[in-house]
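Chapter review: from sequence to fold.
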Amino acid sequence: MPEAVEEVNQGRSFLSTPMMSAEGSHEVEVEATPVRVTGFVALLLGLISFSAVLGASLLVIPVGAIVLATIALRPYRGERPIGYLAAQIAIFCAVLFAVWGISERHFKARDLGGQAERFAGEWLRLVGQGELELAVELQVHPTRRQPASMPLKDYYQRSETARGLMDQFREQEFIPELIAAGSQPQWVLDREPHSYTLYGRELTRTVWRDVTGRISALVKVEMEYFGSPRVDSPAWKVELVSTFIDDSDRV
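The token string follows.
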């Protein structure tokens, strides 16, 4: 009987005594997973980096995303910080959209440059051949030009408005010299066309040289490109014709 009581007491003692362990005797300090907020901010900028396709100035957005993502991707110890994956995605998006935007502008500028070269060369040929009425029309906004069926010579003789446009054309700087040279000049492109955007207008500058020497100065023909829905088809307008002075010649 004493043995049975002793067994019961031992059983109670075993059940009632708390187990000694690291969890029971000491509080375990669990290190919190670090959070890198820069990774999430970089992700936000990376997602809106698609706007870099709209303009060169907006390339600052993917650049900012890459900078913040690089900060978030600094080395760490222990568990991977929260926001680390977001930073990796941000870099991917930023690089993708930045390359897309740069490529888009490069190919567009090259295409516009080719069109501008053909258009400006044809315009110089028209002036040289004395087809001044058509040359003047190409300096007018595409939506205000006369229809193709309109006899331009008769129109410019009868219309007071048209005669005023012709007078303004002849009074432009350097135009009288171009008209006087006639078809003698042989124009070649002096340098690659330069396309740029100014206040929302798409402009392209072409610079020409007369290989015969009849006209010694370089000639700048600057044009505006129209590709908006208001125009039936993409068109060009001669914006400015003048002599061109290379800045490198001044040094």
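Two observations follow directly from the output. The beta strands are 187-189, 194-198, 201-210, 218-226, 235-244. DSSP finds nine helices and five strands in the chain.
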